[in-house]
Amino acid sequence: MDYITAGESHGPSLVALVRGVPAGLALSAQAINADLARRQSGYGRGGRMKIEVDQVRFMSGMRFGRTLGTPLAIEVANRDWENWRARMAHEGAPPHDLVRERSPRPGHADLVGALKNNTDDCRDVLERASARETAARVAAGAVARSFLASFGVEVRSYVCRIGDVEIPPEEVARKSGVFSADRVESSPVRCPHEEASRQMTAAIDEAREAGTSLGGWFSVTATGLVCGLGGFAEPRERLTARLGAALFSIPAIKGVEFGLGFAAGTLPGSRVHDEIVCTPDEPGRIQPARASNNAGGLEGGMSTGEPLVIRAAMKPIPTQAAPLRTVDLLTHELTLASKERSDICAVPACAVVAEAEVALVLADAYTEKFGHDNMADCLARFEAYVARVARVAR
Ligand code: EPS
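Above: the input entities. Below: the structure tokens describing the complete assembly.
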């Protein structure tokens, strides 16, 4: 299973094209829209989220509520397009009063994209580089999430840090990094720790006052995975590499850790590696298990069957109400960066996008391992594999 997206931030719509979805998967626009709404939420979002109510329209690949096993095309309309028709017209000459974006924002794709694509209007670049595109990814990810649910896999996220406010690490350790969805989704910043959540919203208010923006850290977990997803034999099979690439494809991601992550480089092996034990599951069956999960559910480029535990860092949004210095693309004079309407903090939304990316990689690994013709065959192969792995362990 894989996907591509198309669409500009202020064009008529965003489109996700998802390939390799098995036939017979029950899908609903309602389930996808629920994820889109989570991506739109979060304290610190900007004015655009008041305009949009992201909802999908299936354009191909579905019949009577089930997938056909053919490419699935999903559209998310941009309501704001009405306000941008003239400036974003697909054809014709530019309007005589068109204002070109000549003051690239430090931290955004504006400058390098304009140089690369030989344009003096950063809008030619920023319309696609905008994180608005991630709405289409979340729609694609919701398809992957529905597929994974058939195998008992759940992908969730929560915000662990915004600016200098962090959930106490001992609280995260106490919960082994897995929090209830209710606690996460009821927080305005998708942070399950009440006091940290309160301080995070206060930090966002301070950043707004100061005309700046804030980044942060979030965690993504996947539970219910089988062992052996990905592979150890070829570099590109490795699930760790595939997850890392998918997470780094999200705009503004500057760091990704699995399990202990960077801390694994600071400890002796005796305190890093997860001892292998056997846990009785049901009479007559023994599942392989680990005494700990410092590896974050990955060993040798494959899933171990323990929860996948990822942490990622997002840099602050580049658009600043109190802009940084930049250079005019035409005159080369020093000036101040352009002020697009923007978010103060989009870490809660970014975590939802990361869930989608992780779900897409995992769904790809499941279809690679268990086939992608139709759900019944895929599930039969899956069940046979689960039974064999349990037998070998005994
Ligand atoms: C976004 C839509 C955008 C921005 C934001 C994310 O809408 P507009 O540019 O019309 O305000 O709010 O874009 C960025 C963070 C960015 O870096 O470009 C969205 O739907 O998520």
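Note for the figure: The CA atoms of residues 287 and 303 lie 14 Å apart.
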